[in-house]
Design a protein that fits this description.
Elements (H helix, E strand, L loop, with lengths): L3 E8 L6 H4 L4 H9 L3 H22 L6 E6 L1 H4 L11 E6 L4 E8 L2 E8 L3 E7 L6 H8 L2 H8 L3 H22 L10 E3 L8 E4 L9 E5 L5 E7 L5 E5 L2 H6 L4
Parallel strand pairs: 1-11
Antiparallel strand pairs: 1-5, 2-3, 4-5, 6-10, 7-8, 9-10
Helix pairs in contact: 2-3
The chain binds coenzyme A (COA) and zinc ion.
Organism: Streptomonospora arabica
Keywords: Transferase
GO molecular function: transferase activity
Amino acid sequence: MTALTCRLWWASPDDASPALLDLLDPEERERHARFRARADRDRYLVAHALARLALAREAGCEPAEVAFTLHCRSCERRPDPRPEPHGKPRPAGAAAGLEISISHSGERVLLALAHGVAVGADVEQVSADRDTDGLVDYCLSPAERGDLDRVPGDRRTEGFFGYWARKEALLKATGDGLSGGLAAVGVSGPFEPAGVLAWDSPDAPEHVRLTDLDAGPGYRAALAALTPAPLTTDTGDTAALLGAVRR
Ligand SMILES: CC(C)(COP(=O)(O)OP(=O)(O)OC[C@H]1O[C@@H](n2cnc3c(N)ncnc32)[C@H](O)[C@@H]1OP(=O)(O)O)[C@@H](O)C(=O)NCCC(=O)NCCS
Ligand SMILES: [Zn+2]
């Protein structure tokens, strides 16, 4: 079976520049302006500029010809969906047929791009300040909680975010997001090779691949793809892509 190659584009909120704003569409510019914290604004700007540039490069079109539709799988099943567009961005316009996933945390912005296969990416800053104790019950099954308890204390926070990144990557691949239920998705221990062990939902995908990504010290990241094919990655040259935009 031919492997699926997913291209990863890594960037930083420090890559933000006024020129990137020109790449955003009016809805994106409006959302960008609504963020109060500069760090959030910059992560959003870099992620969305990067998405347009990478998709345009892949589709052989201009960034302005790239459009997105947003899909919330949880709303699609509900009688009272939230009226405004939200959820997983799906490339449209000249970039139709490509799939992406966006994630940002701390100093990392991540875009995953694949042809014709839904992907989910998640990067998480390993943050000792966050009250992970309160999140453990929400995120982990009883068996996973037991496994995390056996991780040495100084690696436990990292282990928790390892679980979180893997599970969220899976739920972003399907488009469920957190409403798909992190605890319903069972993954291997955070210091073991990544694998899906269980998915307690009637809407679980038939085929899925999961791998960890190296986001550097202080971060955990993962990539999921809804495919039976082996999953491989390569890395795009973000500096060249963003550098070509006039500053
Ligand atoms: C949206 C969500 C998946 C984001 O996760 P996060 O760790 O906070 O943030 P990340 O940076 O990793 O991911 C954010 C990106 O995920 C994408 N995204 C949003 N909803 C998504 C979904 N349902 N599936 C896949 N991707 C989604 C967006 O591109 C977003 O980036 P953007 O806001 O810059 O466009 C998660 O916060 C969530 O599911 N929240 C609950 C939302 C909710 O209530 N959903 C039900 C609404 S009716
Ligand atoms: Zn929704």
